[in-house]
């Protein structure tokens, strides 16, 4: 008789073979922008051009709003898996998920809630009232910060209409705003030396911008232009802003959608992060803004709508180069510009190869993973 065993999802989590981060001094690579300072627009634009990522301070969101959501979210994740599933539904892609990210085989050492802010979804409404209230307060506040950052971006780009980008996302009827709450429990897998276990694999965010706030537990890393990974020291009082693929296209590659990933925590503390993803309405045309283009400059991308991009993106794996199929490789930017498309334009096959290189083939670790998955903690339970 042949015994057929279901594949253990923990065994599919790639253990990163690269150092946990390899870009020198902590935090030095991360620009910091004071959103209330007079030069904020220029500083935001400089950060989006050079790194595609920055830490925003003086954003105006009271600590009681972020702290309340953190506490309510931790209480939610402490509930039994079945209760969490009953309250939010299994992620498809919205709802409660554990280990599986998206629907194309990506896995990570985390559980999460993925919610849409559009009024016609039932997901937030069915959450426990204290968590729902905390989420509503938080999302109202983070939308304001997102709107302010989009205004600063428009100003930094020299657009006449400072409200153009904000109006695509914040408060636009039918816009596609998501909130994701990620919980990374301390990782029980032994990882050798300077390696870590993947919490959330490397990727870019498809939307226009993302705003992240986390608790004090480290793990987030961003990929710098030179290919090194820089740790992002956690700072619960700041928001971390990253440029999404759509903003890269709107600026014809001047702003860069930054690759980022999360290494699962090893100590005693969980990482809890909340990310707001600002996407436009499905019918929104995503193409370089005429005002950012120089005379004779060609678009680096074929035209598409957010709806088209999102449905294509959600068929990809996390690490894929999602803009690849939309690039017009024959078109070149003016020599003075160095847009991201030419710097990082790997094809999907190359990305797959890089992913495979990250797979750390180590059988005793797989055995330990299987034991951990069967033995303890919330991640041991596999949602249906
Ligand atoms: C593997 C996937 C998960 C994701 C959809 C995708 O097919 C590729 C993009 C992923 C991503 C990354 C940023 C956000 O966390 C997210 C919600 C998004 O919009 O794109 C996730 C998607 C997801 O978790 O469903
Ligand atoms: O949880 C984090 O810190 C980052 C997660 C992330 O990049 C995402 O959810 O898209
Ligand atoms: Fe992300």
Automatic annotation (TrEMBL):
Q: Which cofactor does it need?
A: L-ascorbate
Presence of keyword Oxidoreductase: yes
- Superkingdom assignment: Eukaryota
Domain named Fe2OG dioxygenase is located at: 174-280
What's a single GO MF annotation on this record? metal ion binding
Q: Which SUPFAM superfamilies match?
A: Clavaminate synthase-like
Return the PANTHER family for the record: 2-OXOGLUTARATE (2OG) AND FE(II)-DEPENDENT OXYGENASE SUPERFAMILY PROTEIN-RELATED (PTHR47990)
Name of this protein: Fe2OG dioxygenase domain-containing protein
Q: Which organism is it from?
A: Paspalum notatum var. saurae
């Amino acid at each position: 008789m042949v015994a057929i065993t279901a594949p253990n999802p923990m065994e599919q989590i790639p253990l990163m073979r690269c150092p946990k981060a390899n870009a020198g001094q902590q935090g030095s690579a991360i620009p910091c922008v004071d959103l209330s300072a007079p030069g904020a627009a220029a500083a935001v634009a400089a950060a989006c051009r050079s790194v595609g990522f920055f830490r925003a301070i003086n954003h105006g969101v009271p600590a009681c709003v972020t702290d309340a959501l953190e506490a309510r979210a931790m209480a939610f994740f402490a509930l039994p898996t079945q209760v969490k599933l009953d309250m939010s539904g299994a992620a498809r892609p919205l709802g409660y998920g554990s280990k599986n990210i998206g629907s194309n085989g990506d896995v990570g050492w985390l559980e999460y809630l993925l919610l849409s802010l559009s009024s016609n979804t039932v997901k937030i409404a069915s959450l426990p009232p204290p968590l729902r209230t905390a989420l509503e307060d938080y999302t109202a506040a983070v939308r304001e910060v997102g709107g302010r950052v989009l205004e600063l971006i428009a100003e930094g780009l020299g657009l006449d209409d400072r409200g153009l980008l904000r109006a695509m996302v914040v408060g636009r009827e039918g816009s596609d705003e998501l909130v994701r709450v990620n919980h990374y429990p301390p990782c029980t897998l032994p990882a050798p030396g300077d390696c870590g276990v993947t919490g959330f694999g490397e990727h870019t965010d498809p939307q226009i911008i993302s705003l992240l706030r986390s608790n004090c537990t480290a793990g987030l890393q961003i990929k710098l232009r030179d290919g090194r990974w820089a740790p992002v020291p956690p700072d619960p009082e700041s928001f971390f802003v990253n440029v999404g693929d759509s903003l890269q296209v709107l600026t014809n590659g001047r702003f860069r959608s930054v690759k980022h990933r999360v290494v699962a925590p090893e100590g005693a503390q969980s990482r809890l992060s909340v990310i707001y993803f600002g996407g436009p309405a499905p019918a929104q045309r995503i193409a370089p803004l005429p005002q950012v283009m120089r005379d004779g400059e060609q678009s680096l991308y074929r035209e598409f709508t957010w709806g088209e991009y999102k449905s294509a993106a959600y068929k990809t794996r996390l690490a894929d180069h999602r803009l690849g199929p939309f690039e017009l490789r024959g078109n070149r930017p003016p020599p003075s510009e160095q847009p991201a498309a030419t710097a990082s334009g790997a094809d999907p096959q190359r990305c797959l190869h890089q992913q495979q290189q990250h797979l750390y083939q180590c059988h005793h670790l797989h055995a330990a993973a299987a034991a951990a998955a069967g033995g303890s903690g919330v991640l041991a339970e596999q949602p249906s």
